[in-house]
Structures are given as C-alpha cells and as structure tokens.
Predict the 3D structure of the following.
Amino acid sequence: MNKKMKKKGWPAAETPRRCQLDTRCSTPDTRRRMIRAFLFDIGNVLLKFDFSIVLRKLAAQGEVRDPAEVMARIDQVKAAYEDGQCDRAAFLRGVFDVLRYRGTEADFIAAWEDIFVPNEPMVALVEQLHGRFPLYLLSNTNDIHREYVFRRYPFFQRFTAGIYSYEAKTSKPGRAIYEIATRQHGLEPASTFFIDDLLPNIETARALGFHAHHYHYDQHAALLVQLAEAGVI
C-alpha cells in the first residue's frame, strides 16, 4: 500500500471511488461517465429564429402596421398560450382581435411557422451525440411551432422525448418545468448537460445542479470546448 494513503487512513479500495468524484483527478473516461444525458432548448440553439419576416406579413394583412407594435400586441396573448393557459383557438382569436387581422387562420399559421432555420453546427453536434447519449428537449413553445419543427426538420427524431411549456403549463426560467423534466425522463441533474441561449434559464439549471452552457450560435466553439473538457467529444 502507498505510504501516503496509509498515513491518511484511506482504505485502498475506497481511493478509486473518491477519485472519480473529484474532477481534479478524473480521467477522460471518468469525466465522460459524469455526463449521461443532454437537455436542449430549441429556439436559437437547435434552430435560429427571426420574427421580422412574419411581422411584416402580419402587418400587411391587419390594421396594425408597425412590426414592433405587431409583436408587442402578439406578446399580450402569446405568453398565456405558451404556458398552456389557453389553447390554439383562443390564441388565434386573441391575435386576430389585437391586430385586427384580416387574413385566414391558415394564412396566420403559415406565417407564424416561417421563422426558423437550422443551426447547422448544432445539428451536426446532435448527430454526433445521438446513439451515445439520450437526448431530450426542454422548450418554452406552443403546439403550432412544435408540430411544425418536427414535421419540417428530420433531426428532431434524434430526440428521445421532450418537455414543452404549453403541455407542462409552466415555463423556464421557473424551477417547476426542470423538475418535471427530471421526473418524467428519469434525469439526474448532476449527470445531465443543459444547453440554452437565455441566461436566466441557465441560472435556474445551475441552481438545480445541472451542467449548463449559456449558448450563442455565433460562439458555437465555446460549447465544443466545454464538452471536450467534460470528456464528451
């Protein structure tokens, strides 16, 4: 037995376990074992989004002509919709009312869906992680957008499951939606890596014990560095 071990009174059999719990003496393999699952946000993580085009389209078919005012008025009813406090029909009635919108429901939904483009480096990362880790989604979203992105972008089939605010009836950065994700998916925060573009959401995740990365699609390399340090890639 090593004399230093004996002096400190560490049983030889216990030393490897202690070392695995201390990242200062961990190897790439033990660090990799620390991450067992990934939890992804959607907007501005997996998909970039831009409301400017849809706002111009909606302004052209309503009495509210300023795109910024269009967004402000939609926000009056969108939060309740994405928190599951009203259904799609109520959301559409509310939007048509606040915008005095003259288009059809189909016109509105087509415009509302057309805000996304894939974040290609993140799509590549999903493909790299798929099959090695279970991948989950955690998103503040609504049924229109959820149905659209799963229909439009095949890489969403790489995800095992997801928690969505409109179904959970609660949203980030509140703790409740994270706790729902851990219960329903059997996740341990200490071994789950969470990626989101909004700092308040990251702060909640870290407070709950998740590994977390505050993501920006213009700084994708920073995420890869953190994953490399964790022994994941």
Summary: The first helix runs from residue 3 to 8.
